[in-house]
Every structure is written in C-alpha cells, then in structure tokens.
Amino acid sequence: MRVGIGTMAKSKADEKILSYKDVVLRRTDLDILNGPNYLNDRTIEFYFSYLSSLFPSDDILLVPPSIAFWIKECPDTASLKDFVEPLHLSRRKLILFPINDNSDVCMAEGGNHWSLLAFDRNSNVFVHHDSSSWCMNEYHSKQVYKVTLPYTSSNATYREYPNTPKQVNGYDCGMYVLAIARIICQWYASSGTQDAGTLWFSHLEQVSPSAVSEMRDDILGLIKGLMAVPKSVA
C-alpha cells in the first residue's frame, strides 16, 4: 500500500514525543515552541503540570486549560457541580485558571487569546492578569469568577490588575500566562501567607518581553531534556 506524502507528514506531526504525568506532547508542540506561535492547550497544561511538581502542595491548584474552559462554558449547573467538586476548590489556598476567549464548546482548542485568573484565599480575591493592552479576556475571566464563587469563597472580590506586563506581539499571550503563573507560585512558596496586602505584584517586574522569549527557549529545552530521560526513570 502506498502512503501519500501528506499523510506521512501529518503522521510525523502527530507523533507522540513525551508523556509527562497526564499530559501527552506531540511533535507539533515542539514546532509551536520553536517559532513565534500562539501556545496551544497541551503546552500550557504541560507547564502547569511541571509547576505543580516544582511546588508540590495540596494548597496550590493549577487548573488545566480544558477544565478551566468547561467551568466557563458548561451549560448545566448540576453537572458542573459534579465536575468541580473533585477539584476541592474550597480548601485550596491558591488557584490558577488559564483563561481563553473561546466560547464554542464544539471547537477544540479554539480561541485567540490567553490570560490568567488567580485566586488567593488569604486575601480572598480573584486577580485577572491580561497581557493585552485592551484586557481582551475580562468577560471570560469574570465568567470563571462568577461560576466558581460557590466553590471557592462566596464573598471573594474580583479585580483586574492594570499593571500586568504587556506583550509586544500578537502571539505571546500564552507565554505571559506561564511566566506570571511561575512568579505567583514562587511568591506563594516563599512568602505568600504573609503578603495578603501586596500579593505578588512587585514580583511581576521580572516578566519582560526578553524574559518571556528566554522562557520559551527554556521550556523547549525542558521538554527535550525530559525526552532524553529513559522511560523507566521519567
């Protein structure tokens, strides 16, 4: 049987290159990180999972993109309760939600923009970090805030943080989500229970266009390094 070149190319692109915890990365994910490209769900889920291993604590929950999306768009309140309760949101001290502007439940990995919604229980506040100058995801982040209030803290407040570091191109929004998520986890691990007033805001100055570009290369190197680890060890 003859296999077309197009079929072979697609097969190569879909090739599984790494299984990390519950995340499976494919060749296309490396291609995304290699160039000036918008991050997909898998790449964000991988790095969130990696951060969870760096900061292991039942107090911290980094929500995978697919779960954050379903929380935002689930049309049935009853089924949402069954879906959310296993996350134990009520006992988490820090929760990070990746926010995407996709509203179509029939379109996997849709949308055009990522942002980050963080809940800190010590200060009882949801903070939305949007790297676009127009705060493109405000509506979507507020949807997650409203839906999760019964499961997190019924009287928690919401705020947009206007001094969130801004991207300088049209594709790095996902990278800013990862960079800010890392900053918040580092902050919480070092002094999060003591800084209810100032939160992590002063640390965000570390997130710059050059730092984000370097981080993209670092994540690519991290994946390649994990690929080189024997399966019996990984």
From TrEMBL:
Transmembrane segments: none
Coiled-coil stretches noted in the UniProt entry, renumbered to this chain: none
Domain Ubiquitin-like protease family profile: 23-184
SUPFAM superfamilies: Cysteine proteinases
UniProt KW keywords: Hydrolase, Protease, Thiol protease
InterPro entries according to UniProt: Nep1/2-like, Papain-like_cys_pep_sf, Peptidase_C48_C
Family, per entry: Belongs to the peptidase C48 family.
Protein name: Ubiquitin-like protease family profile domain-containing protein
